[in-house]
Amino acid sequence: MVDIEKNKQEFLTICREKIKRKGIDQLLNYITKNSDFFTAPASTKYHENFEGGLCQHSLNVYKMLMASELLQPQISQESIALCALFHDICKINFYKKDYKTIKNERGEWEPVPFYTVEDQLCMGHGEASVYILSSFIKLTREEAWAISWHMGAFDDRVKGGSRALNEVYNKCPFALELHIADTRATYESQLLINEEQE
Q: Taking every pair of C-alpha atoms in the chain, what is the biggest distance, in angstroms?
């Protein structure tokens, strides 16, 4: 369904060309040698819930952000690449493959793979990505805001009553643009998958 090696090379090429910040080599070493970033799904049952989906989704978000005329030239290509490609770094080593037994069309029971969640950081979605990235690279405040709040109104903090999202979007249009790119990449990729299955 997805060419994992091709996506991996595209991802690494963009990182090496666009991100010159101190710590990028250590970050790339971490995701290539100590994580499942390039083979992990992006979700358990929603968007890109297949092997290699996390990298595919990250590349899709990057392409959406690069196409945004609102960001040029105010936001550097380095910030765009960093935030788009790593906004979901919290999902590395996060999904585990398991199996359930279901009846197939012939009425026979067979094992079917599915993904479960094994959250090791337990600190929230965007917050975990900022935490992981900050251990390798110094983020600007705007980059940290964008990554931390990329889930928008779907963020558990908003569901719990936090009003900080409004302040962030007022102070940092880049954060809103990352959320829009993430949302578009999520739903547009699902539409393409649904069309392929019809």
A: 59
